Automatic annotation (TrEMBL):
Name of the gene: edd
Keywords assigned: 4Fe-4S, Carbohydrate metabolism, Gluconate utilization, Iron, Iron-sulfur, Lyase, Metal-binding
The reaction(s) this protein catalyses: 6-phospho-D-gluconate = 2-dehydro-3-deoxy-6-phospho-D-gluconate + H2O
Pfam entry (one): ILV_EDD_C
Native organism: Croceibacterium selenioxidans
Family statement drawn from the similarity comment of this UniProt entry: Belongs to the IlvD/Edd family.
Positions annotated to bind [4Fe-4S] cluster: C157, C224
Protein purpose: Catalyzes the dehydration of 6-phospho-D-gluconate to 2-dehydro-3-deoxy-6-phospho-D-gluconate.
Protein origin, superkingdom: Bacteria
Protein name in UniProt: Phosphogluconate dehydratase
EC number(s) given by UniProt: 4.2.1.12
Length: 604
């Protein structure tokens, strides 16, 4: 691309060179597997094949004779995750839409799907990150039946999309489309929700008042409307060209949502190996697509969880990206969106203002994204700089137009910030991620004595006792992948927010996670190496002065560790199935590589 920004070009070239051998090995494996599984009537003995279509009723003959393509569905449907509840109705509809174009469709398998919103601050959160590995493994189980010519992925939320993508990439000879269900309509104003949370943290609101507020925010089927990991997932699928264009943020249960899902099914029938427009997932997800995902994350102020997920799913495709790459891209990519918790409006307001189509158009025009990638929904990424609409009953696309609200969405020529707001900070405490896009610049540097904790409950107790009413850096250690599965620590957010509002200079330093909802408190998260195993955080003591500076890219201490022994982690707690995840904890690699046992032990 002639107008590609020099930083984007340089980082992409570096990733291509670094990934040369691993990417070659991956593509060779996918090509060989694609040839081996090209015809299920040859690859599968008759008894195996008969088992595979035994329950398919009117579609049996078509599958048996390969009269048309057979679409495999991997679904993360359940009723507990509001975003995934609509998926219960999808497979029966998809079978009808497949028959419209001479294809068939069958559910290949299901994956678990947990909601971080439900498990936040509970024991279940310690299963959260590793659920991504379980989802990837479950995806490969479903696709291992070798009955399919393309794949529909039904999943949206935090670990689900990265897990589906990692699993799908190991069957990368199959064309794959991700099909979202869309965000729920907007509930109460985000500022009101945040106000009640902080009142509750201060003991000024009752549990009943808090629950009433939360229920008015999270109130119906669909994705939660704040711009956290789930909605950042949808943004990335657009930037990588793995959705039908503009599918990310159309509400559930609308005619347009149904039309987009129908179009995805028809597209899955058109891009198989047997046609003249073959678009396997392995060729869609390349170095340029991975860079696009990172650029989109930075341009929209998305979830810091993707500093872990992007390296993980890239690795599954033989692509190696690290935090230096993200940091360098962040210096070149301007912040174009302010979506709650980085701004006042939610993803519905973002979509109404021009949404992903506007962002992609701006990034392409400025040379900040790669146009020339293989997408599932158009000739190149240019097809995604549009918005879908219904022309009568027909699905169509049109130019996204200018921003409808520059308090929410701005052009590259007038961004909210000149950079993408995700910084690498490093020093004698390790390497970490600092999300600056949600933090007031006068709090980008915090230097104060630290107070060390290992449990979120202990922070709350110290807060209630008044022990944190001062300038303080709260250090939460032994929260890394090997220690306890690297839970998100959002139980800390209201407490730290209250301290900050009282005028204290506070920050968080942790080897755990905070995600895209981390909000206004400065935080160095994903600190690597983690405390367990002798990382620097294990040597800190209460009162040591810690400095966190996003401007200089620093997380450090003035303490002298000479002669100190590392602190010991408390015993791993049992219950909620955590004891079954010991193999994931023992085998996990560092956050910068994705925090995965599966990828590490699988030789990827």
């Amino acid at each position: 691309m002639s107008n590609l920004h020099p930083t984007v070009s340089r980082v992409t070239d570096r990733i291509i060179e670094r990934s040369r051998d691993s990417r070659r090995r991956y593509l060779e494996l996918m090509d060989a597997e694609g040839e081996r599984h090209a015809d299920r009537n040859v690859a599968l003995p008759c008894s195996n094949l008969a088992h595979g279509f035994a329950a398919m009723e009117q579609d049996k003959a078509s599958i048996a004779t390969r009269r048309g393509p057979n679409i495999g569905v991997i679904t993360a449907y359940n009723d507990t995750i509001s975003a995934h509840q609509p998926y219960g109705a999808y497979p029966p509809q998809m079978k009808v839409w497949a028959r419209e174009v001479g294809a068939t469709c069958q559910v290949a398998g299901s994956t678990p799907a947990m909601c971080d919103g439900v498990t936040q601050g509970t024991d279940g959160m310690e299963l959260s990150l590793f659920s991504r590995d379980v989802i990837a493994l479950s995806t490969t189980v479903g696709l291992s039946h070798a009955m399919y010519d393309s794949v529909a992925m039904l999943g949206i939320c935090d670990k689900i999309v990265p897990g589906l993508l990692i699993g799908g990439l190991r069957f990368g000879w199959l064309p794959t489309v991700f099909i979202p269900s869309g965000p729920m309509p907007s509930g109460i104003a985000n500022k009101e929700k945040q106000r009640v949370r902080q009142l509750y943290a201060e003991g000024k609101a009752s549990r009943a008042e808090l629950l009433d507020s939360e229920a008015k925010s999270y109130h119906s089927p669909g994705t939660c409307t704040f711009y956290g990991t789930a909605n950042s997932n949808q943004m990335m699928m657009e930037l990588m060209g793995l959705h039908m264009p503009g599918a990310a943020f159309v509400n559930p249960g609308t005619p347009l949502r149904q039309a987009l899902t129908r179009a995805a099914v028809h597209r899955l029938a058109a891009i198989t190996r047997d046609g003249n427009d073959y678009r396997p997932l392995s060729r869609c997800v390349d170095e340029k697509a991975v860079v696009n995902a990172a650029v989109g994350l930075l341009a929209t102020g998305g979830s810091t969880n993707h500093a872990i997920h992007i390296p993980a799913f890239a690795r599954a495709a033989g692509v190696i990206i690290d935090w230096n790459d993200l940091d360098e891209l962040s210096q070149a990519v301007p912040l174009l969106a302010r979506v709650y918790p980085n701004g006042a409006g939610d993803v519905n307001h973002f979509h109404a203002a021009g949404g992903i189509g506007f962002v992609i158009g701006e990034l392409l025009d400025a040379g900040l994204a790669h146009r020339d990638i293989v997408t599932v929904g158009g000739d190149d990424l240019g097809a995604y700089a549009q918005e879908p609409w219904l022309d009568g009953e027909a699905l169509a696309w049109r130019d996204a137009g200018p921003s409808g609200d520059e308090e929410m969405l701005r052009p590259v020529a007038n961004p909210f910030m000149a950079d993408g707001g995700m910084r690498l900070v490093e020093g004698n405490l390790g390497r970490a991620t600092f999300k600056t896009s949600a933090v007031d610049p006068d709090r980008w540097t915090i230097e104060a004595p630290c107070r060390i904790f290992e449990r979120q409950e202990d922070v709350a107790h110290a807060f209630t006792a008044g022990e944190l009413d001062r300038d303080v850096v709260v250090v939460m250690r032994f929260q890394g992948p090997r220690a306890n599965g690297m839970p998100e620590l959002h139980k800390l957010t209201p407490v730290l927010g209250v301290l900050q509002d009282r005028g204290y200079r506070v920050a968080l330093v942790t080897d755990g996670r905070m995600s895209g909802a981390s909000g206004k408190v400065p935080a160095a998260i994903h600190v690597s190496p983690e405390a367990l195993g002798g990382g620097p955080l294990a040597y800190l003591r209460d009162g040591d002065v810690v400095r966190l500076c996003a401007t200089r890219g620093e997380v450090s201490t003035t303490a002298d560790f000479t002669g100190r022994e590392p602190a010991s982690m408390r015993e791993v707690e049992l219950g909620t199935g955590r004891e079954l995840y010991g193999m994931f904890r023992v085998g996990a690699d560092e956050a910068e590589k994705g925090g995965s046992a599966m990828l590490a032990l699988g030789g990827l």
